[in-house]
Amino acid sequence: MAEIYIGLMSGTSADSIDCAALDLSSEEIKVLGCKNFEIPKDLKKDIIQSSQSTKVKKDLIHSLDFRMADVLVGSVKAMLTELSIDIEAVKGIGSHGQTIKHEPRSKFPYTLQIGNPQKISDDLNLRTVGNYRHDDIEAGGEGAPLTPIFHEKVFGKDKTRKVIINIGGITNITFLDYPKKIGFDSGPGNCLMDSWSRAHDIGNYDDKGSWASSGTINLSLLEIMMSDEYFLRDYPKSTGPDYFSYKWIQKNLRSLSKEISPEDVQATLLQVTTLSLIESINILKISDENIYLCGGGVHNEFLCNELKKQSKSEIRTTLDLGIDPDFLEAICFGWLAKQRIENKKFNLSDITGSNGEVYLGRIYEPSK
């Protein structure tokens, strides 16, 4: 008998919602279907502004929390209708939520995701798992990335060394070296390029990296940006678009003695993503292992070509490992929902730096 779980992921780029329906009745993860849903423009605008703001008013966060939950609920309903799945057949929802702030190293460490899991549970009348990062942060960890344990589950069975790189708004890297696994955020993925594109009316993102490819890397700006404290920090480490923001770009531009063209800035930002990732790969002493990409960055052709030029390894996507690179994270959080409902704990000390085993996610039961 099928055990159906729904995984929901809205990445740090806030571009859309990924939804995955899974049958987890056996050790094999059976993907029943995946679909991408747009985030309404007004909500997306408010999300981006909030994540880039130093301070966000509590009533705005409350509003965003419930508006995002409404969109997530609608996505689940549409997905189930399209797949002809009865909602009563679903055992649970795993919703990561939309990250607004991520400050695991502040005086009072915290992380903030919107998309109220209690509202999702109430509206769908389904057990929902959310707030995946909180317990890890309370145990002294970074709270992210969490996907390396899933990468080990689905890609580590053959025990060969491999690297999984998710390029979303932020880039995170997983190195599987049986029995060890290492994971951390290498730095920005698409978030800086997206911010700069929006500011110059190119669009919400630089399609295929074509605008970046029209510019020339400014070496002075690149050197300034790559001297940021985050890139010099050892792992475990994690970050978010609230740090690598439009303000971060402006701050670094002010350090230059002369103005440079917008397309040259974009070319340099793409190189920051590339170089920070390549340096992380070199720190891990990865040379001849296969590298598999996933996340929205796989569609940035210019970025992928730059990575291939600068890497010593062969670069593919997770499609070669049997999982659609656009939906790997949604599948992950559906699978993690089942682990949490079954009260399984994980030791993430080598990934996030947390102490001991922790639960990933909190369970929300329908209150009606």
Question: What can you see in these coordinates?
Answer:
The chain is an alpha/beta fold and about 375 residues long. Helix 1 (about 40-50) crosses helix 2, helix 2 (about 60-80) runs parallel beside helix 3 and helix 6 runs antiparallel to helix 11 (about 260-285). The strands form four sheets. Strands 3-2-1-4-7-15 form a six-stranded mixed beta sheet. The protein folds into two domains: about 5-145 and about 325-365, ATPase, nucleotide binding domain (Nucleotidyltransferase, domain 5), CATH 3.30.420.40; about 145-320, Nucleotidyltransferase, domain 5, CATH 3.30.420.40. The chain has helices at about 40-50, 60-80, 115-125, 135-140, 145-155, 190-200, 210-215, 220-225, 230, 245-255, 260-285, 300-310, 330-340; strands at about 5-10, 15-25, 30-40, 90-95, 100-105, 110-115, 130, 160-165, 170-175, 180-190, 290-295, 315, 345, 355-360, 360-365. It has 13 helices and 15 strands. About 40% of the residues lie in helices and about 20% in strands. A hairpin with a 6-residue loop joins strand 2 (about 15-25) and strand 3. The two termini are about 25 Å apart. The protein is globular.
